[in-house]
Write a structure and sequence with these properties.
- This protein has 196 residues and is of the alpha+beta class.
- It has four helices and ten strands.
- The strands form three sheets. A four-stranded mixed β-sheet has the order 1-2-4-3, with helices on one face. A four-stranded mixed β-sheet has the order 5-6-10-7.
- Strand 1 and strand 2 (14-21) form a beta hairpin.
- Helix 1 (35-48) packs parallel to helix 4.
- The radius of gyration is 16 Å and the shape is globular.
- The two termini are 21 Å apart.
- The mean pLDDT is 94.
Length: 196
């Protein structure tokens, strides 16, 4: 079974083309026009063993908000499509990831209900061309488009670059775990019989 998704989303603000393979090798080709954001998405793919292609043409002359948020929307849609009916999924995933001074906890539930809990105090306003307040907007968009519970908590950290990178990598590891197949799960892992 090929767990993949190809999503296109075009508005007056952005044109996003994204391809995701859950059972990949960690290969990526990313071009959003925001260098540090590209680096984070590449790290997400590498550490989650996802194959990811992202091309975004956004209104960066305004700012990075639409580019980052819309990429999150499309990635969330791709995750939702790629997991399909969620039969056999572990459903839950969690990881605590160290990145030098930063220590990030991330937990995921592919329950079909959107929710984001984001506890992180980023001191710097920018890392490269990425406005750091957009990191929360990205994860919010992913969680709501995918229909997942997503909790991200920075347990410690001083360097904003390290903290953001720890978030993306911890999310990758938690999502890889949640999307893994458990042969003991005959249908979906829910007493309700549905993860919608």
């Amino acid at each position: 079974m090929s767990r993949t998704a190809d999503i296109k989303r075009k508005t007056k603000e952005t044109d996003v083309i994204l391809s995701l393979t859950l059972d990949g090798k960690g290969k990526s080709e990313v071009a959003t026009g925001i260098g540090f954001f590209d680096h984070m998405l590449e790290g997400f793919a590498k550490h989650g063993f996802f194959d990811l292609t992202v091309s975004v043409n956004g209104d960066l002359e305004v700012d990075g908000h639409h580019t980052v948020e819309d990429t999150g929307i499309v990635l969330g849609q791709a995750i939702k499509e790629a997991v399909g009916d969620k039969a056999g999924l572990k459903r839950y995933g969690y990881f605590i990831l160290p990145m030098d001074d930063a220590l990030c906890l991330c937990a995921v539930d592919l329950c079909g209900r959107p929710y984001l809990r984001f506890e992180c105090d980023l001191q710097a306003e920018r890392v490269g061309a990425l406005e750091t307040e957009l990191v929360r907007e990205f994860f919010y968009a992913v969680s709501y488009s995918a229909g997942m519970n997503l909790h991200i908590k920075m347990l410690s950290g001083e360097n904003t670059h390290h903290m953001i990178e720890a978030m993306f990598k911890a999310f990758a590891k938690a999502l890889d775990q949640a999307t893994s197949i458990d042969e003991r799960v005959e249908d979906v892992l829910s007493t309700k019989g549905s993860l919608e």
